[in-house]
Amino acid sequence: MPIPPRPAERRPAPVAAGLHPRNRHQGRYDMARLLQANPALRGYLRRTPDGGQSIDFSAPAAVRELNRALLASDYGIAHWNIPDGYLCPPVPGRADYLHGLADLLAGDGGGTIPRGPDVRVLDIGVGANCIYPLLGQAEYGWRFVGSDIDTVALQSARANVQANGLEAQIELRRQHARGRLFDGLLQPGERFHLTLCNPPFHASAREAAQGSQRKLRNLGGGAPSSRGTSPVLNFGGQANELWCTGGEVSFLKRMVRESVAVQAQVLWFSSLVAKSEHLPDLHRQLAKAGAAEVREVAMAQGSKQSRFLAWSFHAPHARRAWLGHG
């Protein structure tokens, strides 16, 4: 299926609300087009108070079929699946993270977003859904390496890659050292323009379960019909996807510490940060680590406020030289 034309390319300043201007998922869902891409979605439609159509966002199967429709209609990804119980990510929010990263590279490259397979991206914790490599390859033509500690997740991710004929663009690696992120994963001499990550942000299984219950209660009043107002939720999720000892801030501090050792191999490190109260501590950790530049980029979808944190150990002139603009 051909991918629709991209919106007009530009490098906007980060904004506090709304999807990125290049994000394909602005406004209301075009249900007729989505049903054409994935007829199975019809079984999950529901009428909204204003007479429109939406789905039940509290039903994992409905979100999965919506994702399949979005991926097929907007990105040419004809085959996508995840095992039951694994993370089912919201496509619009995941696309926003990639567009924000593209802006980082454009800022170092004279305003032009670098496209094509020469741009290499490392996804820490690629998951069974493999969503970032699939979206990033479709949108920008970037080449990805996705890592995970979960063999079932990697099998699912590999099935998605192979079903779409993307083996040359997306490589998958198992991280054998539990508790490590970059150590033992990067090969000598290889370089990445970007790393990205959606870290586990709960500190325990109990906290993760309580968070899931809060999400379901919040959906009790009904699901809106607009992309801009629909709940931004990750349904399902295995233990390593949802929680780790110490929670999000502990995970990200470890990422910062490990990034020091591989700083020569990466232009920009980055991660989503779910809880804004963690940012001051992370900024202190990055200053201590000697990061040359730190960026905090706001993202939003409806009432959901999010952000990603990016850091580089390379000065501006070195980043320009990396991209061929020195």
Automatic annotation (TrEMBL):
GO terms for molecular function: 23S rRNA (adenine(1618)-N(6))-methyltransferase activity. It is found in: Cytoplasm. The keyword Cytoplasm applies. It comes from the Bacteria. It holds the Pfam family Methyltransf_10. Keywords: Cytoplasm, Methyltransferase, rRNA processing, S-adenosyl-L-methionine, Transferase. Its main location: cytoplasm. InterPro entries: METTL16/RlmF, rRNA_lsu_MeTfrase_F, SAM-dependent_MTases_sf. Its EC number is 2.1.1.181. Residues 1-23, 207-230 are annotated as: Disordered. The keyword Cell inner membrane does not apply. It catalyses: adenosine(1618) in 23S rRNA + S-adenosyl-L-methionine = N(6)-methyladenosine(1618) in 23S rRNA + S-adenosyl-L-homocysteine + H(+). NCBIfam families: PRK11727.1 (NF008725). Belongs to the methyltransferase superfamily. METTL16/RlmF family. PANTHER family: RNA N6-ADENOSINE-METHYLTRANSFERASE METTL16 (PTHR13393:SF0), SAM-DEPENDENT METHYLTRANSFERASE (PTHR13393). Specifically methylates the adenine in position 1618 of 23S rRNA. This is Ribosomal RNA large subunit methyltransferase F. It comes from Stenotrophomonas mori.
